Amino acid sequence: MFYDKKNRGISIIGLLLLGVLVIVVLGYFGVSLREVSQNPDVKDNLNYVEEESTGFWNTYLKRPASYLWNDVWVTLFWRPFIDNMQRIRDKLPTDIELNSPGVNI
Q1: What is the DSSP string of 49-92?
Q2: CA angle 46, 52, 55 (to 5 degrees)
Q3: Cβ atoms of residues 58 and 50 within 8 Å
Q4: What residue segments make up the domains of the chain, in order of their start?
Q5: pTM of whole model > 0.70?
Q6: How far is CA 20 from the centre of its chain?
Q7: Sign of dihedral through CA atoms 40, 42, 44, 50?
Q8: What is the pLDDT of residues 62-89, one digit of tens each?
Q9: 84 and 78 in contact (C-beta within 8 Å)?
């Protein structure tokens, strides 16, 4: 496969720069983010979005995300990683070194 430049996504740094650019443009047009964020209607809308997203998290996403984090990520990746890092620190063979086939000459 060849590297295709057309299918690249935006990076985190790109998103941060885009956010800064939006803030600068809003300031250029005289929009005060402080005044906008202190508007009662904006506060009410933000509180509504927070309540709905919290409810959605607690109702639909919390159980599967907790399962994936605790039973999949931690069990399959994090604990073996930490165990092998401790073995490297203690100058013991890692799981790969213990389980790789050897050649007897």
Answers
A1: HHHHHHHHIIIIIHHHHHHIIIIIIIIIIIHHHHHHHHHHHTT-
A2: 140
A3: no
A4: 10-99
A5: no
A6: 21
A7: negative
A8: 999 999 999 999 999 999 999 999 999 9
A9: no
